[in-house]
Amino acid sequence: MPVTNEVGIIQVGRSLKPQQAMMDELLQGMILIGVVSILLLGLGSWFLAGRSIKPTQLAWERQQTFVANASHELRTPLTLIHAGVEVAQRQSTSEPQKQVLEDVLSDANYMTKLIENLLLLSRLDAHKLPIEIQPVLMPELLDELIRQNERVLSSKEIALSTEGDSLIVLADPVRLKQILLILIDNAARNNHSGGWIKITTSSKLGKAEIEVSDSGDGIAPEHLAKIFDRFYKVTEKSTQDYHGSGLGLSIAQGLVQAQNGTIEVTSKLGEGTQVRFTLPLAKKPTLA
């Protein structure tokens, strides 16, 4: 009987297709459960967030309504106080009494301005401030601003100048002028005798960029992040003619944004401040 070293191997097995199909079904079921869980979690979060945000939104709307109503109600008595003090001031013959009346008049003017600012901010928050966008010739607007501010700034020995491109911007001329007056006023109050304020216009990336720079005190870095917060004051500097409310830059920011623009502030302590804001450029008319 012949002897060999060959070994035979017989493999016995069965198909794994049923198990694979079962695993596929299990995987699909788990994926479906995961998707449904995520959807339920998202809907629940949305529902809870809506319930928590709604009272806050209602409170905010009530606050804005209160500010608007209070502002309207206070304007009339303040106007009467202002008129009465002016009459008493003209009729008074006592210098100490005139000084007291002058202080009352200054405070009445401050309160009137504060109420107007609060009313303006409430309209901006509610998106109810009328904005009439139209082409505005910057050279004409800047010439008007220089004429109106020249006398006051000359008395403080502060020079106001303009430079840059002759731009036509798309803006509300009244609100644009208001923005620039706020920035000029801030620059003047934080400047010094012999200082300067400069308004520069240029176009960048299809936008008009307007910068108001000054040679004033500058702003410390820790204040820059809060510079647009309402009622925030870098200093408590006040004079008989001006009491800062900390609302000027908040209003300027709101007015710029309402006209499809952006605004930013850069400054270095002791080296002045630069406020830049952008507005859409108007297309220059083509000659026929």
Automatic annotation (TrEMBL):
InterPro entries from the UniProt entry:
HATPase_C_sf (IPR036890), HATPase_dom (IPR003594), His_kinase_dom (IPR005467), HisK_dim/P_dom (IPR003661), HisK_dim/P_sf (IPR036097), Sensor_HK_Regulatory (IPR050736), Sig_transdc_His_kin-like_C (IPR004358)
| CDD domains referenced in this protein's UniProt entry, alphabetically | HATPase (cd00075), HisKA (cd00082)
Residue stretches making up the Histidine kinase domain: 69-283
UniProt keyword Cytoplasm present: no
- Catalytic activity field: ATP + protein L-histidine = ADP + protein N-phospho-L-histidine
Among the GO molecular function terms of this UniProt record, one is: phosphorelay sensor kinase activity
Instruction: Identify the EC number(s).
Output: 2.7.13.3
Q: Keywords, A to Z?
A: Kinase, Membrane, Phosphoprotein, Transferase, Transmembrane, Transmembrane helix, Two-component regulatory system
Q: Which residues cross the membrane?
A: 26-49
Keyword Acyltransferase annotated: no
Enzyme class name: transferase
Q: What is this protein called?
A: histidine kinase
